[in-house]
Amino acid sequence: MIVTALSLQGINLNYLEKYCDDVSTLAKKHNSRLVVLPAHTATVLGFATKSITATVSEPVADNLENSSRQIWVEQYLESHSKLARSLDIFLAAGTLIEEKAGRSYNSAYCFNPSGELCTVQRQTHLTRFEHEVGLSRGEDLTLFDCDGLKAGLVVGNDAWHPEIGRIFGLKGADLLLHCDAREGELTCWSQASGMWAQVQQNQFWAVEAQLSAVIGDKVYGGSSAVIGPCEITPGQSGYLARGYPHSKYVTAELKEKARRQIKQKYPLLKLLNPEAYRDSLI
Amino acid sequence: MPLDGWKENLFQRYLTWKCRPARIRRHLRTTLPGSLPAGVEKTADRRKIRAAAVQVKLNLHKSPLQFADEMHRRVREAVDEGAVLVAFPEYNNLPLLGLLPGIEQMEESYREKAISPGKTHADEDKQQEDIKLTDVFHYMSPAVKPLVDAVFSSLAEAYKIYIMAGSYTLADNGSVVNRSFLYGPSGKMLGSQDKVHLLPIEEEWQLKRGDNFNTYDTTIGRLALPVCMDATYFETFRILEQNETDIVLLPIANQEEYNYWLALRGIWPRVQESRLYGVKSALVGSIAGLTFTGKSGIYAPLELTPEKDGILAEVKPHDREAMAVADLDLEALHELRHNDPWRDKNPALYRRYFPEIYLYK
Mind listing the pLDDT tens digit for each residue in A253-266? Predict the structure, then answer.
């Protein structure tokens, strides 16, 4: 399976049609079956196309703002559903605020090649800022079928909480898609302590889309990556592909047979010792 | 059981006698310098605790006194650097295989087996093949345990420091465990830790795994001493963090060709996930067809390191003797833990999945 993660650098964001054309061109060029967009893509695109005047990455109390945001959210989801269908790909479309029963969640959305929403994943571990703006935590982690692989979405800060990788790993995840945006520069060390570390201790694949863009006065300088168990990556680095802060995208082919072989050779999850932490992780 | 003949029993008694604590302590007393450094104070400066991670090159010692001298030399080096906390590697008993007569031939046989696994051995070699390493560990235990205790207890007391003596494969109620030890400035053994997560080869050797994580309160913070593979799993460090551990002392002996990224997978990410200090001490070198590589180092959360890379000190060679030394600031660590904008807990999520999720494995 060929996978691609975008940073939004070099993508025309001023017009929705041109944005879709750019994403399509990239996906076709690499024959990608899976494309992952970073967190806040809807906000970046919404501002650039002048579809919104307030972020769709945070809850907003103002009703007027809410109605214009709602229109944009629907348009955004519809256009990405079409994009997934027309390209015949799985498309992780970044994050949006999901309102449910009086609560707001930061959620990532993924469409399957039929254009159907195959999963919505709420962020489960919030930053202090995300708490302050009124977001709530999700309490479930779900997997979906991605061409025979069990896939899950990882939202933002969850990548730095190893409980997420372990739960997904023990549920049988083969592939995690991480939609993220970190303010400032995401150093290689910070990145390695997130998804890279989760991949190494659970032996799944991860496709990490980090935003490289400016929203208001906030600068996001992340670099995207495709990560696998060290043993089956060039130089045993754990990276199948790794971008720089201003790289447009990264792409790589996931060789599932190799991953299954390494899991069999070093069965890390089978060597867990649950008796030692039965009552300690709650 | 290939090591229970009368000759073996007799030699075991002889070995135990040679390793008797009184002899070891007496020897060390004669080699200790006249004036000793102050060591750790009763009320240590929690903003500056100097730790040393010793990297030991595997050499077979022909006598227990040689082992004692070697450990003393390494402790002395660390003390000369101002260290009040010194850590030794995993499988620190392997150099003691040199106490066995004929070990060189046995080692040669194991080495050949490792190079050409399909090779047919002559009949005389078959007897050696039948002796498993676990049998050897079991056989040597009555001598090794008192020796280790005498050496590190004496050194910790003499220099008034804390020593994590590394880990040793020792007999325990009919089984063999991989156990690390901690000694305090009074010379008392403060505690131990059995390796909780075993390597496939250790499972093959039928080692018994530990089933809990211990912590020890000292004047330089709360210490824990899990062993090597325990750092592959976030659970170890998360539990230690929940138990308010400040410093994790990790003895390692990695049996693999050195690679920067492979080596990064253990303690470094665990320290980032769980916000504590990590002191990793590596065994390097070859024995019995097994080659160990690694780099001893001292690690901290990214925010507490000058280069923001999570590394306070790390030795350069991965195959030679070396030592990493760095200062740990417990106040800064506690400040970070209580004021970390990125960290969160989700009890509802954990309750939903833990511990039942482990049944999925």
Answer: 999 999 999 999 99
Q: Decide: A180 and A150 in contact? Cβ < 8 Å.
A: no
Q: How many CB atoms lie within 10 A of CB A99?
A: 14
Given pLDDT bands bounded at 50, 70 and 90, which one contains residue B113? low
Tens digit of pLDDT for each residue in B245-296? Answer: 999 999 999 999 999 999 999 999 999 999 999 999 999 999 878 899 999 9
Which ipTM value was assigned to this complex?
0.93
CATH topology (fold) of B6-30+44-360: Nitrilase/N-carbamoyl-D-aminoacid amidohydrolase (3.60.110)
pLDDT (tens digit per residue) in A224-257: 999 999 999 999 999 999 998 778 899 999 999 9
Are B284 and B323 spatial neighbours (Cβ–Cβ below 8 Å)?
A: no
Please tell me the distance in Å from B53's CA to the nearest CA on chain A: 22
Spans of all domains in chain B? 6-30+44-360
Q: In angstroms, what CA-CA distances link B122 with B3, B126, B136, B315?
A: 20, 6, 21, 43
Q: Which helix (H) or strand (E) holds A119?
A: strand A117-122
Side-chain half-sphere exposure of B122, counting CA atoms within 13 A: 2
Say if residue B126's pLDDT is above 60. Answer: no
For residue B64, which of B39, B14, B103, B99 has the smallest C-alpha distance? B99
pLDDT per position as a tens digit, B170-219: 999 889 999 999 999 999 999 999 999 999 989 988 899 999 999 999 99
Q: Hey, which residues 81-100 in chain A have their CB within 8 Å of chain B?
A: none
Please give the CATH number for the structural domain made up of A2-276. Answer: 3.60.110.10
Is B233 in contact with A193 (Cβ distance < 8 A)?
A: no
The answer to whether A269 contacts chain B (CB < 8 Å) is yes
Q: Which residue in A264, A208, A210, A209 sits closest to A232, CA to CA? A: A264
Chain B residues with beta carbon closer than 8 angstroms to that of A126: 344
- Beta bridge partner(s), residue A96: A107
Contacts of A268 in chain B (CB under 8 A): 232
List chain B residues with CB under 8 Å of A197: 265, 269, 272-273
Helices (H), chain A: 16-29, 41-48, 63-87, 128-132, 162-170, 188-191, 197-202, 256-265
Across the A/B interface, how many CB contacts are shorter than 8 Å?
Answer: 150
Domain residue limits, chain A: 2-276
Of B210, B308, B352, which has the smallest distance from its Cβ to A187's Cβ?
A: B308
Q: Is B169 in contact with B178 (CB distance < 8 Å)?
A: yes
Nearest residue in B to A165, CA atom: B234
Beta-bridge mates of residue B183:
B163, B189
Residue position matching structure tokens 């076709």: A28
For residue A37, the 8-state DSSP code is: P
Nearest to B353 among A167, A237, A277 (CB): A167
